[in-house]
Amino acid sequence: MSAVVTHSFTAEGYLVLKQLISPTEISMIQQEADRVLTQERLSACVRPNNTLTPLRWNDRLVDLFLGSGERLKRLAVGTGGASLKWISAYISSKDPGTGPLWWHQDWWCWHHDQSFKKEATQVAVLCYLQPTTEDSGALRVIPGSHHRHIPLHEQLPRAHDHDLDLDSGHPAMADHPDQLTLNLEAGDAVVIDYRLLHGTHANIGANRRDCLMLTFTPDWDRLPSDIQGHLSRNFALPQPGESIEAISYDPGLLPDFDALAFDLEIDRVPPSYFTVSDS
Ligand SMILES: O=C(O)CCC(=O)C(=O)O
């Protein structure tokens, strides 16, 4: 199936890809997500109203997702990148009766010039494993907020501050006049620029809502080497001594970085005013 591109991903910061997980795959992927979540992995990150369970390169869910060349083609076409690489993956779960996930953005290196390019450096692909609505934890996004400062930026707590419990009236939790809610079917996905402001509605339904989330760089070959080095050290990627012989996906999807890699300083707070440029 070809990507339904109704607007520019670069300009809006998000893109819906219907049935990125096909109806024939969805029940196997749901069952595998259920199996992983019953393992209660020690590294799971519990945030208010949402739990992130990290996956690695050799998890079956990652293998199933990356094993489809057609799926990767849709992602490459949709994001416009010429050298797509996979970086990390998680299951993002919302239990029944949980409130909204607060407005935040995921970019981690705001002091770097790379933050102010029009094109996305890193994207998250959020694949919903159950239908989502305003009552069952649907994603909400603020189109364009990856390219310019908006007043909400200043009202947000530090992204990924996991221990804050905010009042439901706090602007980080509340509806925003410019928000778009993405009501999706099981298997549909949203691709977002890492800088885009996003969050979720509450899940007031009776069932857990799961999202298989994978992150990619659309155009690895054009990234500065310090960003490449940092990303290549992600714990989700094969480490020295781990054999990738058993994977069913193209090993060319894994970042290649031959120089000495080091971690960059993490900076999740955008400047108090910003815009982006072409170069
Ligand atoms: O679970 C979701 O729908 C969104 C998760 C999310 O925004 C995040 O983990 O950054």
Which tags fit this structure?
279 residues, 7-stranded antiparallel sheet, 11 strands, disordered N terminus, binds 2-oxoglutaric acid
What does this structure look like?
By secondary structure, this protein is α+β, with helices and mostly antiparallel strands. 17% of the residues lie in helices and 20% in strands. The protein contains six helices and eleven strands. It has helices spanning 9-12, 26-38, 60-66, 69-79, 151-155, 225-232; strands at 14-17, 45-47, 50-55, 85-94, 101-104, 123-128, 139-141, 180-182, 189-193, 198-200, 209-217. The strands form two sheets. The protein has a seven-stranded antiparallel β-sheet with strand order 1-9-6-11-4-3-2. A four-stranded antiparallel β-sheet has the order 5-10-7-8, with no helix packed on it. A hairpin with a 2-residue loop joins strand 2 (45-47) and strand 3. The longest helix is centred in the N-terminal third of the chain and has 13 residues, at 26-38. The two termini are 33 Å apart. The structure holds 2-oxoglutaric acid (AKG). 2-oxoglutaric acid is lined by residues 50, 52, 92, 101, 106, 126, 139, 198, 200, 211.
